[in-house]
Specification:
Layout (H helix, E strand, L loop, with lengths): L4 E7 L4 H4 L6 H9 L1 E7 L5 H10 L20 H7 L4 E5 L26 H4 L2 H4 L2 E3 L3 H6 L6 E5 L19 H15 L1 H4 L2 H6 E7 L13 E8 L6 E3 L5 H10 L22
Parallel strand pairs: 1-5, 1-6, 2-8, 3-4, 3-5
Antiparallel strand pairs: 2-7, 6-7
Helix pairs in contact: 3-11
């Protein structure tokens, strides 16, 4: 499961049953069929930010009544481990106002979908904060072979299935949100998957923060998680129970880092997906 470039991409608020086999997500489903699919994967809670913290720090602090967090997270986290092991990293956040921005939401960018903006290792370190960049830099970094060892990819609210896409107003069909996200994925991430570098040593994890609010199974509901890479078993379907701390473990383990923040230390390894 060794990789030199790991990518984590998180979509929003869609349950497994609406995603896998969903007619509005043909590209995402083609990846699920071609590569690895975790069929028994559940989000940890029904608060977007809490799930994002588990994906990056292994556990979440106590959030306020509206699911936000006013402070900084000083516990061990993915940035601290990457830095300790001399691994480069970047957050590519669509519609991020500027490089290094850790401030509040400016629509359609949402701070609560970017947990790195809460980590003390980033907020209190201008050099590390400089690794938060607008997604518009992604294509150039791919073309110029400048992608980091670890990349966290954040579509904006109109492209991540959270809100209606541009031009659809405030109320639209789920199919509109899904087809927009699927086209975004094909357009922006398809070139990565097809690149020579990714085929050589890349690993991409696509997951969802949580399921619909009506699904509280295991905390945050049943969601789809897809593992893409050249050394992933083709068409592999896992029935092992996983949650977000296993994805955190995977993104570090693939880079050869064996120190896992928070609950990732005791989480099941996802090594079964690899040849």
């Amino acid at each position: 499961m060794s990789a030199n470039h790991v990518f984590l991409l998180v979509f929003e608020n869609e349950g497994y049953g609406t995603v896998i086999g969903g007619p509005s997500l043909p590209y995402l489903n083609s990846l699920a069929n071609q590569y690895g699919l975790a069929t028994n994967y559940f989000a940890n809670q029904h608060s977007s930010l809490g799930d994002y913290f588990v994906l990056t720090a292994g556990e979440a602090p106590q959030l306020n009544a509206i699911g936000d967090f006013a402070g900084t997270v000083s516990d061990d986290n993915v940035v601290r481990e990457l830095a300790a092991h001399n691994k480069s990293w970047k957050v590519y956040a669509e519609s991020l106002p500027s490089v290094g921005y850790t401030g509040p939401t400016i629509y359609p960018y949402k701070r609560q979908h970017n947990p790195f903006a809460y980590l003390s290792d980033v907020v209190n370190n201008p050099a590390q904060a400089g690794n938060l960049v607008p997604f518009s830099e992604f294509a150039a970094d791919l073309a110029n072979d400048r992608l980091p060892n670890y990349a966290y990819i954040v579509p904006n609210l109109q492209d991540d299935m959270h809100d209606c896409p541009t031009g659809k107003g405030e109320s639209c069909a789920i199919a509109d949100k899904q087809s927009t996200a699927d086209n975004w994925l094909r357009t922006n991430i398809g070139p990565l998957i097809n690149s020579t570098g990714f085929k050589r040593d890349g690993l991409l994890v696509i997951t969802f923060d949580e399921a619909e609010l009506s699904d509280v199974t295991n905390g945050g509901g049943h969601i789809a998680t897809i593992i893409v890479g050249s050394n992933v078993k083709p068409g592999y379907k896992s029935t092992t129970f996983y949650q977000h701390e296993s994805t955190l473990r995977l993104t570090l383990e693939a880079l050869g880092i064996m120190n896992f923040p928070g609950k990732a230390a005791a989480a099941p390894s996802m090594s079964e997906f690899f040849q």
